[in-house]
Amino acid sequence: MPDGWNVYLKSGSDGFIEKKVALQLLPNEPVMKLNYDQEKKLWQKLQSARDSERYDAISAKEHGVNYFQLLTAAGNGDLKAMARFFSLARFMDTSAAEEYYPERWVLVHVVGDERFARFLSTQPAKVRENIGVTLSSPGDTEPISKPKAYLKQYFPKTYRILFGKGQ
Fold it and tell me: I want to staple 92 with a disulfide (CB 3.0 to 4.6 A). Which of 14, 19, 100, 107 is the partner?
């Protein structure tokens, strides 16, 4: 793997810059809110695809779920679809989990703070705890290395439900 940085633009585009390129970091520049609008369009496109090569979609299909149709409905704010999507965790083996858990992070962005907090408020404590673990794990929240601080800034209602006021 080349040495460098993943780059995420406000527009939602991303890319990679190799270290050999001279970059200068801006001092005290705040972390911007990520934009995953293009993911919602991708889910809409993939929901009608005959087959997906993604392990998370294959695993869901084995349990009678059209993964991208479910994600599209969840992304549109359907609370039942969100609950079903988060319930799929128990079916995700190692390969599927590598795609599924980061998709949870994306879904939070697509849905937005207000709707996601509303969804969380309808869920049992154990489900909220499980979601909180995922959304505070830097491995599942790339490129954000301090996800709790990020959530507190950009998803304050969600943050309060998951982690309380003082954390």
Answer: 100
DSSP one-letter code for 89? G
Per-residue pLDDT tens digits for 24-77: 666 676 777 888 888 989 999 988 877 778 899 999 999 999 999 999 999 999
**Where in the chain are the domains?**
31-163
CA 150 to CA 135: how far, in whole Å? 10
Total-model pTM = 0.81
**Residues paired with 7 in a beta bridge:** 15
| Distance of alpha carbon 107 from alpha carbon 155, whole angstroms | 13
Q: Which helix (H) or strand (E) holds 156?
A: helix 156-163
Nearest CA among 104, 106, 113, 123 for reference residue 151: 113
Tokens of 34: 């990520």
Give the span between the Cα atoms of 87 and 104, in whole angstroms.
Answer: 11
